[in-house]
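Database export, one record per block. Field names are fixed; values are copied verbatim from the stored entry.
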Amino acid sequence: MKKHILDTLEESLLVKKRFISTHTELIEQAIIALSDALERGNKLLVFGNGGSAADAQHIAAEFINRFQMERPPLAAIALTCDTSVITSIGNDYSFEDIFLKQLQALGRPGDVAMAITTSGNSPNVIKAVKAAKSMGVTVMGLSGPGGQLKELADFAFAVDATATARIQETHITLAHIICDLTERRLFNG
């Protein structure tokens, strides 16, 4: 088991290091865009399915509460949390509309959407991203190596890995970096 533990750690570190080293400039640009949006009074809307839904909640909490520093709350909403909204949309329309309708209700031009899908093809995520683009919402797309999301996103963060776990670990590392540097940029940390 020890070898498997160490191999897993090494693989995770390698995927993250490769991703960060090839996306550094894009990460900087995304942080500037997000911090400018928040400074203007816009918000971050985060969404995804399964583990990515949990990541969406985690990321929104870091922005609303705090990450590394004491500072005022930043406007962020995870579109994965309201079970009454999600189930009513899923029941009355379809599961493909659960993020779309929330984005249409809550999104405004100048907002930023962080769409997360390991495959890059989750139909409900893609449908919401297309709507976001038409509404003037900037899209950060966190995905694996394939799929439509990387073609649609303004900031495409496609992790070049095949293991879902490695992709998700990289997504949360990226989100932590974005949150950390956004609050530093906004609050001179």
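Remark 1: The domain at 2-187 is CATH 3.40.50.10490 (Rossmann fold).
Remark 2: The first strand starts at residue 44 and ends at 48.
End of record.
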